[in-house]
Specification:
This protein is α+β, with helices and mostly antiparallel strands. It is globular, with a radius of gyration of 27 Å. The protein binds alpha-D-galactopyranose.
Length: 725
């Protein structure tokens, strides 16, 4: 709900349980007043009493001599007007002047028409506040979208040049707001390839805490997610805020504690090397940011984000649909396969209940290793005699579907595509380029490049019966340069690149609406809410080790729903860590996301093959819970001995818990795990334990931690039953 009080010029925005309040102050600036648990629609202007502070400049148009933008909480801070905190926007005019003084002009309430290739959230009610600059012909529109059933607020901005001379946007963040003075901790998800999304929680001191990627991709190294927590907040208690970008390119999120202890949090496109020229009448649209509030700890914060992403961002037709259960050939053969090997794998997979065969890297061009072939999307008939047809026929004969891998954004130096179009690779022809995995990135800012990739993919997808595409991306951008962009527009390159990626993904999905697209970037290198608008699931990590996956799945769930985390059972010793974990545990960890297999099935024992059948049946039994349920994190695997999570149906009649011993500990008898999310007044039956207990008992007294060995896992299937009389 959005309301505006004309007398106090106050906006009250309400989501499911939060209020977000701002006002137009006497000097015409948009002032942030409150964001937190629901409050009355009162005049909250008393919360920002003007107070004189030396060295805080007085703007020439200030109504009060104690007013300064330097310590006034704002909605979108600007440069050069007396606010010395980091600005959300920096606009430079032709004469080099870059100060702005944006004040309220008007507002409207209604649906938002989205006119960009950027991913965006559907639905909701949108407030548009128009600000105009007293010092230039620039206009900013701030968008705020609220949902009655969600504790997520969506923000973005649009900058319009109303003048005739060009304006350069050297920074254009998606959102900014100033939280009141307090003691906050910051939680971010850093990492690296094979170890994505490691949570790190630190006190927020003075100065700016900045997390970012300058890699042209959201990256394994830092996820575009930042949470601010009231110091000491836990999974179940405390105020928490999350800021998550619907963006997959270079980004920044920053939290700056000011001289008066307030915290400016803001972010959007990373401004390193960024500069967007707005010609006369042109506008620039920023990516959207999802901003969540929870008064009940991190668990509730995550559940709000999960519901929001599932209901309003992930592809509507697929987000709640049953997922394919795949056998992916990558870890089974790597590049070393031929038609017979693939058909043998299909024949092994079908009787086990696996329904989709995915042909990964190596099927095209001259691709026997990662040194060549990318960009040549024609079938390698030396490896696959007769092309894809015999493999697809084998799938069909066994009642299975066929999926295929592409890395659309890349080109190998040793490829026909590169030989024909060396200038299509990002970089400068007279400057030797960095390689990474022996490949270059294609210049997706150029329509002829994306057109050619579209044509090649369209050919493969239309000539063959393909139900699934895995879209990979295995390096980051270095020499940011396009031979097709004018020199004074090169600062637009990185953003234009990702717009090209989004446009191609959208076009392919429109052209092939029945194909299921999974995202991937060396595993979870682009696991972000922007990609999730196109890909209902993403390959969570190239690390398939169960113990590592426990951590990755746990931390990924801070920001993203489990139904988006593609999880496979792989071979042991694990190819990434060398660790051996029980087959059953690998199945349990892979049941916490759309499941699949990624190993040579012919090496499995009869017992393990029976295990696969059981795992698939068990997965199908809980799939609905996984797609729609509420996730509760019970035992944190980071540095601890145990991992445990549970998912509960919305009506609280069913739940599924999975746990794993991360480390064997001698004689730790009778340790308890408290369940969460159940109805305390109902009775529940725990299938594996044969116990029937009240929800209150399960949540307060808990269950005993099973006495298992290192890396052993367990599950509890929990079902509401009539109360014992
Ligand atoms: C990336 C992906 C893997 C696999 C390989 C193929 O690393 O994450 O799953 O597809 O590429 O080269």
């Amino acid at each position: 709900m959005i309301s505006f009080d004309r007398t106090t010029r106050t906006f009250h925005l309400q989501g499911k349980s939060y209020s977000y309040v701002m006002r137009v102050n006497g000097s015409g600036y948009l002032e942030h007043l409150y964001f937190g648990a629901r409050v009355g629609e009162d005049d909250l202007s008393y919360l920002n009493a003007p107070c004189f502070l030396s060295f805080s400049p007085l703007p020439p148009d200030a109504e009060d001599p104690a007013f300064s933008l330097d310590h006034t909480p704002q909605e979108y801070g600007c440069f050069g007007q007396g606010d010395f905190r980091a600005p959300a926007v920096l606009l430079r005019r032709e004469d080099g002047f870059a100060a702005s003084r944006f004040r309220y002009r008007s507002h409207t309430v209604g649906g938002q028409k989205w006119e960009s290739d950027l991913p965006h959230a559907r639905g909701g009610e949108t407030l548009t506040v128009v600000l105009e600059d007293a010092l230039s012909p620039a206009e900013i529109r701030l968008f705020y979208t609220v949902y009655d059933d969600s504790d997520v607020l969506v923000r973005s901005a649009e900058i319009v040049n109303r003048g005739s001379a060009p304006i350069k946007a050297e920074r254009a963040y998606s959102f900014s707001l100033d939280l009141p003075a307090g003691e906050y901790e910051a939680l971010r998800l850093h990492g690296r390839h094979l170890a994505e999304r490691i949570p790190e929680r630190t006190d927020l001191g003075h100065g700016a805490l900045k997390i970012c990627s300058m890699r042209g991709a959201s990256s394994h190294q830092m996820n575009p997610f930042l949470a601010l927590l009231a110091r000491g907040a836990t999974e179940t208690d405390g105020e928490c805020y999350a800021f998550e970008l619907l963006y997959s390119g270079s980004f920044t999120l920053e939290a700056e504690q000011s001289q008066t202890d307030t915290v400016r949090v803001q972010g959007g496109i990373d401004d390193t090397g960024f500069c967007w020229t707005l010609g006369a009448g042109e506008k620039f649209v920023t990516p959207q940011a999802a901003i969540a509030y929870s008064g009940g700890g991190l668990g509730a914060l995550s559940r709000s984000l999960h519901d929001f992403l599932r209901n309003y961002v992930l592809p509507a037709g697929e987000v709640f649909a049953r997922r394919p259960i795949v056998i992916n050939q990558w870890e089974a053969t790597y590049f070393d396969f031929d038609r017979e090997k693939l058909i043998a794998l299909i024949e092994e997979a079908a009787p086990l209940g696996i329904d989709t065969f995915v042909l990964d890297d190596g099927w095209f061009g001259k691709r026997d290793s990662d040194t060549s072939g990318l960009g040549d999307w024609t079938v390698n008939t030396h490896k696959l005699e007769g092309g894809l047809a015999p493999v697809i026929a084998a799938c069909k004969a066994h009642g299975m579907k066929f999926g295929i891998w592409f890395e659309p954004e890349m080109v190998s130096e040793d490829s026909d595509l590169y030989r024909a179009h060396p200038d299509w690779a990002i970089g400068k022809s007279d400057v030797p380029r960095c390689t990474s995995r022996n490949q270059f990135v294609l210049d997706f800012t150029r329509p002829e490049v994306t057109e050619s990739v579209f044509g090649a993919m369209e050919r493969i997808l239309s000539e063959n019966d393909i139900s699934y595409v895995k879209w990979d991306m295995n390096r980051h951008i270095t020499e940011f340069f396009s031979a097709a962009l004018p020199a004074d527009r090169m600062g637009e390159f990185a953003h234009r690149y990702i717009l090209g990626v989004y446009a191609l993904a959208a076009r392919l999905q429109r052209r092939f609406p029945d194909v299921f697209f999974e995202g991937c970037s060396g595993g979870g290198g682009r696991f972000d809410a922007g990609m999730l608008a196109f890909f209902p699931q993403i390959w969570t990590s190239d690390d398939t080790d169960a113990a590592e996956r426990a951590k990755i799945e746990w931390a990924t769930s801070y920001a993203y729903p489990m139904s988006a985390m593609s999880c496979h059972v792989s071979a042991c010793p694990n190819h990434q860590t060398g660790r051996t974990t029980p087959f059953a545990t690998r199945g349990l960890l892979a049941s916490l996301g759309p499941t699949g297999y990624e190993l040579d099935l012919s090496t499995l024992s009869a017992e393990e093959k029976a295990g696969v059948k059981e795992q698939i049946a068990a997965y199908r039994e809980i799939e609905e819970l996984l797609l729609r349920g509420d996730l509760y994190r019970l035992a944190d695997p980071f540095g601890k001995d145990v991992f445990a999570e549970m998912v509960v149906s919305k009506d609280k009649t069913r739940a599924y818990a999975v746990g794993m011993r991360m480390r064997a500990v001698p004689a730790d008898f009778n340790r308890r795990i408290r369940l969460q999310g159940l109805d305390e007044n109902r009775a529940y039956h725990v299938r594996e334990l044969g116990l029937t207990l009240h929800g209150s008992t399960l949540m307060r007294a808990g269950l005993l931690l099973p006495r298992l060995g290192e890396y052993d896992g367990w599950s509890w299937h929990i079902e509401a039953v009539p109360l014992p009389s």
